[in-house]
């Protein structure tokens, strides 16, 4: 060994080295407490911006364009809760199941062992995938389902659907709304109201002239094959594999144009039909022809329509509507809360698996051995001994994972788009809804300064929610630790 | 079961579980039940495998849609210095470098904050902190880690930029620095907790050996503990790096939507994730269009980078881990 006296000066146990050491500890303390400063600044700035805007009206109202004073986060709170429930229902069983498989069923078979190792490596890698990539996966796998089904259009019946009833609704002469089921006998028709690009059966494309019935038709004398009268009806057909509207021009040639989903479809009522009134009363609808006089008796009026009235207010055509039951589903899932919930489930799945694995690993081996000694199968050991004592740990991990899901904005933005408010309330899994994080994001980027304060108020609500979830997690951990002691 | 002890056997087949219910001993039916359960568990495990496969297949197939377009050449995508996809006017340019450099700029700023601060906090928590300070710092970091990124983005654009950056220089409303600082803040707890785990895994024997030789606490920390935990610390750094590169909401709010190729941290800088969000936000994503496919091409680059970094981090942690027993 070397003589310590001949070592370089810095290795000698002198006052300078001790001073270095203690000053380093002070620097460390200062740097570490920066985290507290940052957190305090963040909370203060948010509370000072949004605190004054937090009130009951704001918690219940929904978004209004250019009107921050009357906007609120009612729909967003409900949307966030629904999506997180779906996410939890999907992610928890799968995540805990995977953790049990990885921890308790380590296979002896060589092939299965490889699969086992692959799953473990894969999960650690998935935890590092950016959430926006999951969002894009959700868009591809749930919203469009890899293009395996035809995309969902508004007012268009999807190929695979349950829980939806389609019906036509029309207004009688007495102003009463009646409805009747959408059946094949009544073809939906479409009224042409503007110029549009159409194609002949030969495939040739041209712009269709639309003239009103009173316009001098002679102007279009030579172009009868390219002209229709305003309000001419078009039938929905399948032309060369594409959903199209078909109509005939003045010249009598059939033309086709793409079925645009945003336009309502109408049904033409030509003969008496059984309908249901607003109070659920069923009766046969009286169909008058153009030449008939308007009935004077209000009771008869409310049961009658004109077959084809020139007066648009008395038009007998019925628009198609859809009524969704709560279990309404279709394939692909399109931009819906179900897609959003499943996407978030993929985001938090690795977190739940890793947390559950740790909880299961923390169960003492003696418990398992005791159960095996009683002659239990491996699953009985897991079910009866491991899971009950790992549950608090799993629950804690699950709640922390859910609080991650509540705050995720990027995947939801990808899957549902930037929805801020919807006219219909959330009624089925196929509806879109605003959610808290996306609302905050859109408001923070809004030009109207009021929304900045509103975004801060929404952040306070979100943080309060997260605090609540975390307190529950801490409470569970605390009770569990006391029980073991 | 043998015939000689029927009575005893019956007793044994129905042991009483701790919760008092009768449970059969592992018989044929319970083994069959177990086989069924295991099958179910394997399916659960398959979900995560299919997630990865789904991501890769999706990125390959849909990016193919981008590169198969007549206007696109893959070489120009990888080397081009201008990005105008999604803009309605002007010539179409689709060089990834403005987006990539935006990501790298913001990540660089974030790492300059998160790595030193995270490591020092970890060292302090693991080697110096008293129990009382620990019980204050740990929850603070946990709360900071739990704050949604959209909230940090809001903080960056409404506080960091106007009150911290604009007084000291000619910063644009949306700039790389404020986004970088906010991303750095959200990476600090991640670095701290992973690095602290690595530091605490170093056995006390090593520290005691150092003290026995007359080393000060600083010397023990920097010359014994940190080198011993180096693989864990590096893997913590790499995970934080991957996290910063993939961070989305902060940059979407604070870094602006102009792709720039510059080194000036005061300028707006759209990142890869920022571009993806901007495209989704405008709700003009129609499947089959060029701007739809471009999302996948950009996401593929993003995924390759983050996946690669995470994988390297894992390998370092597994391969170079010092095992003490």
Structure description:
The complex is a heterodimer of chains A (485) and B (325). With 485 residues, chain A is of the alpha+beta class. Helix content of chain A is 46%, strand content 17%. Chain A is built from twelve helices and 15 strands. Chain A has helices at 15-50, 56-60, 74-104, 110-126, 131-143, 298-301, 337-361, 365-373, 378-407, 410-416, 436-444, 450-484; strands at residues 160-171, 177-181, 188-191, 196-200, 205-211, 227-229, 233-239, 242-248, 254-258, 266-267, 274-276, 282-284, 286-288, 304-306, 318-331. In chain A, the strands form three sheets. An eleven-stranded mixed β-sheet of chain A has the order 2-1-15-10-3-7-8-9-4-5-6, with no helix packed on it. A two-stranded antiparallel sheet of chain A has the order 11-12. Chain A has a two-stranded parallel ribbon with strand order 13-14. The longest helix of chain A has 36 residues, at 15-50. Chain A is elongated and about 115 Å long. The mean pLDDT of chain A is 82. Chain B has 325 residues and is mainly alpha-helical. Chain B has two domains: 24-68; 97-319, Orthogonal Bundle (MetI-like fold). In chain B, α6 (149-165) crosses α7 and α10 (230-246) runs antiparallel to α13 (290-319). The chains are: A alpha+beta (485), B mainly alpha (325). At the A-B interface, α1, α3, α4, α5 and α7 of A face α2, α4, α5, α6 and α7 of B.
């Amino acid at each position: 060994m070397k003589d310590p006296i001949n070592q370089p000066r810095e290795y000698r146990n002198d006052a300078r080295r001790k001073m270095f050491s203690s000053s380093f500890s002070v620097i460390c303390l200062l740097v570490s407490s920066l985290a507290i400063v940052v957190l305090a600044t963040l909370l203060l700035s948010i509370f000072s911006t949004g605190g004054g805007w937090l009130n009951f009206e704001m918690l219940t109202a929904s978004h209004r364009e250019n009107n921050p004073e009357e906007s609120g986060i009612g729909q967003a709170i409900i949307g966030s809760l629904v999506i997180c429930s779906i996410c939890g229902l999907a992610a928890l069983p799968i995540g805990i199941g995977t953790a049990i498989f990885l921890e308790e069923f380590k296979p002896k078979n060589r092939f299965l062992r490889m699969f086992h190792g692959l799953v473990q490596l894969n999960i650690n890698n998935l935890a590092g995938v950016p959430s926006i990539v999951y969002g894009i996966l959700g868009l591809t796998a749930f919203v469009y389902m890899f293009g395996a089904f035809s995309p969902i259009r508004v007012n268009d019946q999807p190929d695979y659907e349950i829980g939806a009833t389609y019906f036509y609704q029309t207004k009688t002469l007495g102003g009463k709304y009646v409805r009747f089921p959408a059946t094949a006998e009544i073809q939906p028709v479409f009224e042409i109201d503007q110029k549009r690009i159409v194609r002949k059966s030969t495939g040739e494309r041209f712009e269709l002239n639309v003239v009103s019935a009173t316009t001098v038709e002679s102007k279009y004398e030579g172009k009868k094959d390219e002209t229709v009268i305003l309000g001419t009806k078009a039938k929905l057909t399948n032309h060369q594999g594409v959903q199209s509207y078909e109509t005939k021009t003045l010249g009598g040639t059939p033309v086709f144009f793409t079925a645009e989903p945003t336009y309502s479809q109408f049904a033409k009522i030509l003969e008496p039909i059984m309908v249901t009134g607003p109070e659920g009363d069923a009766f046969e609808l009286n169909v008058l022809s153009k030449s008939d006089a308007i009935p004077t008796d209000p009771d008869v009026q409310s049961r009658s329509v004109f077959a084809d009235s020139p007066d648009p207010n008395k038009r007998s055509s019925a628009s198609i509507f859809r009524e969704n039951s709560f279990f309404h589903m279709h394939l692909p899932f399109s931009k819906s809360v179900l897609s959003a919930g499943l996407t978030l489930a993929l985001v938090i799945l690795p977190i739940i698996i890793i947390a559950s694995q740790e909880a299961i690993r923390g169960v003492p081996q003696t418990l398992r051995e005791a159960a095996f000694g009683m002659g239990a199968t491996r699953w009985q050991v897991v079910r009866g001994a491991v899971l009950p004592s790992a549950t608090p740990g799993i629950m804690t991990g699950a709640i922390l994972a859910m609080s991650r899901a509540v705050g995720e904005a990027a995947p939801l933005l990808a899957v549902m788009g930037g929805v801020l408010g919807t006219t219909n309330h959330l009624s089925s899994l196929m509806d879109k809804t605003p959610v808290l994080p996306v609302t905050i994001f859109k408001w923070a980027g809004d030009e109207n300064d009021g929304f900045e304060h509103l975004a801060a108020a929404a952040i306070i609500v979100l943080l309060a929610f997260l605090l609540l979830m975390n307190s529950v997690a801490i409470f569970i951990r605390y009770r569990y630790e006391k029980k073991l002691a | 079961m043998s015939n000689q002890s029927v009575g005893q056997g019956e007793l044994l087949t129905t042991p009483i579980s701790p919760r008092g219910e009768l449970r059969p001993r592992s018989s044929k039916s319970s083994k069959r039940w177990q086989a069924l359960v295991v099958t179910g568990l394997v399916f659960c495990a398959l979900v995560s495998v299919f997630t990865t496969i789904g991501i890769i297949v999706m990125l390959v197939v849909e990016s193919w849609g981008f590169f198969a377009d007549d206007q696109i050449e893959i070489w120009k995508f990888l080397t081009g210095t201008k990005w105008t996809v999604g803009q309605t006017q002007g010539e179409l340019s689709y060089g990834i470098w403005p987006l990539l450099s935006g990501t790298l700029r913001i990540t660089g700023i974030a790492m300059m904050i998160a790595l030193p601060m995270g490591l020092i906090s970890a060292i302090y928590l693991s080697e110096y902190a008293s129990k009382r300070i620990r019980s204050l710092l740990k929850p603070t970091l946990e709360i900071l880690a739990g704050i949604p990124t959209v909230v940090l983005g809001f903080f960056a654009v409404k506080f960091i930029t106007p009150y911290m950056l604009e007084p000291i220089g000619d910063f644009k409303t949306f700039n790389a620095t404020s986004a970088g600082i906010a991303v750095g803040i959200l990476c600090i707890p991640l670095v701290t907790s992973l690095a602290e785990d690595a530091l605490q895994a170093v056995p006390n024997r090593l520290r005691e050996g150092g003290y026995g030789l007359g080393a000060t606490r600083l010397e023990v920390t920097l010359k014994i503990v940190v080198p011993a935990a180096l693989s864990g610390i590096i893997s913590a750094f790499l995970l934080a790096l991957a996290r910063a590169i993939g961070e989305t909401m902060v940059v979407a709010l604070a870094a602006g939507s102009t792709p720039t190729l510059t080194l000036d941290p005061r300028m707006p800088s759209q990142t890869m994730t920022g571009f993806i969000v901007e495209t989704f936000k405008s709700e003009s994503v129609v499947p089959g269009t060029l701007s739809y496919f471009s999302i996948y091409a950009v996401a593929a680059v993003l995924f390759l980078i983050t996946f690669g970094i995470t994988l390297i981090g894992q390998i370092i942690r597994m391969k170079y881990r010092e095992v003490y027993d």
